[in-house]
Design brief:
The complex is a heterodimer of chains A (138) and B (381). Chain A is mainly β. Helices cover 0% and strands 47% of the residues of chain A. Chain A is globular, with a radius of gyration of 16 Å. The chains are: A mainly beta (138), B alpha/beta (381). β6 of chain A pairs antiparallel with β5 of chain B.
């Protein structure tokens, strides 16, 4: 068991002695950005032209739902959000630090990406994880 | 290539049948569809069997073990909620191609209760509720909210879809639920994933449906043309690349693509359609598809439900069966159950819920991941 948290997803990078960030893969041929490992662009078909890019830590709320019913152990209600980051990459995550009510959520409201412990979840080996979340930009 | 006709089609009344096995449920619908055209399993030259829950479990073969082991080719089909329609399409294609003259397509599902989706995250920790929700109510709620952001569609308008479909199902003896649900009851029901309340979510039920498909030559030979339904179009699409599709499944683009191809194949347009059975897995989902199927402009979807244009008696009745919301959504069966519903109206046999003078109908299903299947059906005579 390590003392350092592990990234909740592979595209969340935790550099040695640096701040965590989100990484995308950008197609050299058509410029589309993807989350997660791939060698082939599913938009234009280009092979082996993916380059890693650091994703911006801010964006806008594109769409959302407020989840009230979930599986045991998951705290509800929470906001499931689709965010368009400033570079156009779409990403999904929890929108936190705002009361989960449609009255508090406006389409295109500015949000920032923050990194924090993955809600206390640990794996079978007891490792803790770091995740990303969104919060309203102050 | 020959035209292909539905000569027999039926479905069981959807419900909960824990004492039956999946093949038994499928066999029930198969026998009903065979009886509907006076044929037997011995006449069938192939079986296309759609089921998700036991996709690797040889359901088609076990179904034949129930009703007739004739040694015919069996293809077991899985395509998420488009499974039944995909099984039907494969059956249709085999007849169109001249491989067979008479084939059987079956869709069947036996479901538990509870939330669908949200799986994934094999290694590490589960992501559900950590990085948004992958549950079906949430995914389709997000899709609905996208419509809201672009066109101002309201919670109340989404809720009216449930009022409409629950009302329709009171006229459908095959529906799982046959209960009126007034608007306040729908909006005040337990919120599952805003804006989808419990009454805006389709019901997990057990069910099966089946269709017998014939070549034109065979249908005439057997004297079955009087109730035959011509398949004017059968189209399947997967999700084309869209900028948010990999993060927010896009049910719009695949539907629009399939719809365009279906209208082209059939040589007609949305104005020619007399009734539609579309994929209302959630009330939010139905609203999206009015525009996607071209029966109105996207921004007018809310108005369509407000003004009763999509209700029985309206300009273009949608889901007069009660839809997935009220008739039920046994995943593998739904695609063929929709075809049963439209065929029944085209045969003028829909009783209290009959769409008067229906000649051409359209069925639509979406399987998340994603698949979209659309059929255009016409009364043969």
């Amino acid at each position: 068991m390590s003392n350092q948290p592990l990234p909740a997803v592979p595209y969340l990078k935790i550099p040695e002695g640096g701040d965590p960030y989100l990484e995308g893969l950008k197609c050299g041929q058509c410029g589309t950005t993807f989350l997660g490992e791939r060698n082939v662009c599913s938009k234009c078909g280009a092979r082996d032209q993916m380059s890693p890019v650091t994703l911006p830590n801010s964006g806008k709320l594109y769409s959302y739902s407020i989840v009230y019913r979930s599986f045991p152990g998951i705290e509800v209600p929470y906001v499931s959000a689709i965010v368009d980051l400033d570079d156009g990459t779409a990403i999904k995550g929890n929108l936190i630090n705002v009361e989960a009510d449609p009255a508090n959520l406006e389409f295109d409201m500015p949000v920032e990406v923050v990194f924090a412990d993955a809600l206390g979840r640990k794996d079978a080996d007891g490792n803790s994880y770091l995740s990303y979340f969104f919060q309203p930009k102050s | 290539m020959t035209d292909a006709y539905i000569v027999g089609v039926d479905m069981i009344k959807f419900g909960r049948f824990p004492e039956k096995t999946v093949p038994q449920l499928g066999a029930q619908a198969a026998l009903m569809a065979l009886d509907d055209c006076g044929l037997s399993i011995q006449h069938m030259q192939a079986l296309y069997c759609g089921n998700l829950g036991q996709a690797s479990g040889m359901v088609g073969q076990r179904l034949l073990q129930e009703i007739g082991q004739t040694g015919i080719p069996v293809v077991n089909v899985a395509n998420a909620c488009a499974t039944g329609a995909t099984a039907f399409r494969e059956a249709w294609a085999s007849v169109k191609a001249g491989l067979y003259d008479v084939v059987l397509a079956v869709g069947v599902e036996q479901m538990g209760k509870g939330l669908l989706g949200g799986a994934g995250g094999k290694a590490g920790i589960p992501k559900e509720g950590l990085m948004g929700s992958g549950t079906m109510p949430a995914v389709f709620a997000e899709a609905g909210m996208e419509h809201a952001r672009h066109y101002g569609t309201t919670f109340e308008q989404f809720a009216k879809v449930s009022v409409k479909n629950h009302h329709h199902s009171t006229l459908n003896p095959k529906a799982m639920y046959q209960i009126e649900t007034p608007l306040e009851e729908v909006m005040n029901a337990e919120m599952i994933s805003y804006p989808n309340t419990k009454l805006m979510c389709s019901v997990n039920v057990d069910g099966s449906a089946a269709a017998v498909i014939c070549s034109e030559k065979k249908a005439r030979e057997l004297g079955l043309m009087d109730r035959a339904i011509k398949v004017r179009a059968s189209v399947l699409a997967s999700d084309p690349w869209q900028e948010r599709d990999l993060v927010m499944p896009d049910v719009n683009s695949c539907t629009q693509k399939a719809a365009k191809e279906a209208y082209e194949m059939a040589g007609l347009g949305p104005d020619d359609i007399d009734l539609i059975e579309l994929h209302d897995c959630f009330a939010t989902a139905e609203i999206l598809h009015y525009g996607n199927l071209g029966i109105c402009k996207q921004e007018d979807a809310g108005r369509m439900i407000d003004e009763g244009e999509v209700a029985l008696g309206g300009r273009i009745p949608v889901n007069v069966s009660g839809g997935l919301l009220s008739k039920g959504h046994p995943l593998g069966a739904t695609g063929i159950a929709n075809i049963y519903e439209v065929s029944t109206h085209l045969r003028n046999e829909a009783g209290a819920r009959q769409v008067e003078g229906a000649r051409i109908g359209l069925t639509h299903v979406i399987g998340l991941g994603s698949a979209c299947a659309i059929h255009v059906l016409e009364r043969a005579q």
